[in-house]
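Troubleshooting: if your tokenizer reports a length mismatch, compare your output against this known-good record of 326 residues.
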Amino acid sequence: MPEPYVSISHLKTYFDVTRGAFAKKQIVKAVDDVSFDIYPGETLGLVGESGCGKSSLGRTIVRINKPSGGSIRIDGEDVATLHGEALHRFRQNVQMIFQDPYASLNPRMTVGEIIREPMDIHKLYTPEERQAKVIDLLHIVGLKPDHIRRYPHEFSGGQRQRISIARTLALNPKFIICDEPISALDVSIQAQIINLLKNVQKEYGIAYLFIAHDIGMVKHISDRIGVMYLGHLMELGKSDDVYFTPLHPYTKALLSAIPIPDPVIGKSRQRILLQGELPSPVNPPPGCPFRQRCPYAMPCCNEMPPLKSTRDRSIACFKVHQELGL
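Known-good structure output:
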């Protein structure tokens, strides 16, 4: 078994949202005690409802957000302690594709300048080599060489995301965080971007953390899937295992919400409807964050269930622990 390229251990990201000097302290626990590994060339998909902490987790890994606890180790180095040349090297090896391709591209720069900028900052290649690299990257992402002189507003959403991917690949990274890179795109364009990411990974051996809402699309690209709920990792396992045989009640509810194109099958399928209110992420109640909506909640759920593993699956649920003898 190879060593993991990314190792997240008990990671926490808290935000102080207290308003006023004399107000009661309010803390949003966006990421709360999350642990997982990502291996070279692997794609780990991360799914969950809006506000569950997926994007905050990705931004913490690349040091946009400051971690409140735990550790992030990438290629054996503690990310929190990096500075100077080590931090510069980290920025080169770890990149991020953002959700909104238009907001993440400088509207005053041409496509060529946008893709070339990371190479200029990191002083990679000669000016001639940089120009050749830009044209090569445009070809890789399915754009034409004459697009090099155009501006972001002249492109469609799918083309802008291709530009973002080309910029991300400019530094030959080993790990890319894809923060909902297809959510703002049409369904047909989503498939094109997914296939592009898979082809790039196959050619360059890049590891992905793929963040998205659509668990069906995540299954298509991921080797493993992690399910998050209110800052906690509830289930983690191989893509097919999580998708076809979910164990955690929340994962089952997520999968039951996927629309089925066949109306006959869709009508006969039993939908899992969650009852109760979604807890506030501000100072959430103790215990399992899902217990107020879980049909199987027990008194022991007043404590937070640990993420226990069996074979290739990890689950944070006391009911499942009892059933599997964990």
